[in-house]
Amino acid sequence: MKNQIKKFILGAACFMVIAGGSTVAGHQSAKAATNAAVSKQAVTASSTSAQKKAAIIAYAKSLKGKVKYKFGVNNPSKLIFDCSSFTKYVFAKQGISLKWGTALQSKQGVYVAKSNLQPGDLIFLSVSTPGKINHVGIYIGNGQFIHNTIGSKFNGILISKLSDYSKRYITARRVG
């Protein structure tokens, strides 16, 4: 009788290990499938975001020579914008809502260090009052950004080197 009990306990223990092992393996398989699905969603979201940012940059570039700068103006029908109404207009074409005004836009999205800039990030500069955000552009990569501005011989969309604005650079934000 003692022998039969030992065999029963040993058999039950082996069954538990085998059943438990398949349950653990099943759980691990389910977990791996879930992780793969989450990773796929993250890649899809990332590529969708990257596609939006590429479309934003392409659209901004397509407006070169068509847009005029005028301080305090947001007139999409005539393509007359200040710097922040320009970014607002361009991002809206990809379904990303920005507020009008550099101070307001500089609080949207998440902070990005200058060393981590990616194409499509908003960059904020000081162009008149030192240290005060009063200009915005869109980082396009390779140390360049596109912005709507005015100069002595220029009015409209311009692609500039970020390094030319190093003393005026204040911060950057990633939106959308």
From TrEMBL:
Domain (NlpC/P60): residue spans on this chain: 50-176
Stored SUPFAM superfamilies: Cysteine proteinases
InterPro entries, A to Z: NLP_P60_dom, Papain-like_cys_pep_sf, Peptidase_C40
The keyword Cytoplasm is assigned to this record: no
Protein name listed in UniProt: C40 family peptidase
Family from the record: Belongs to the peptidase C40 family.
Top-level taxon of origin: Bacteria
Signal peptide bounds: 1-25
UniProt keyword Nucleus, yes or no: no
Record keywords: Hydrolase, Protease, Signal, Thiol protease
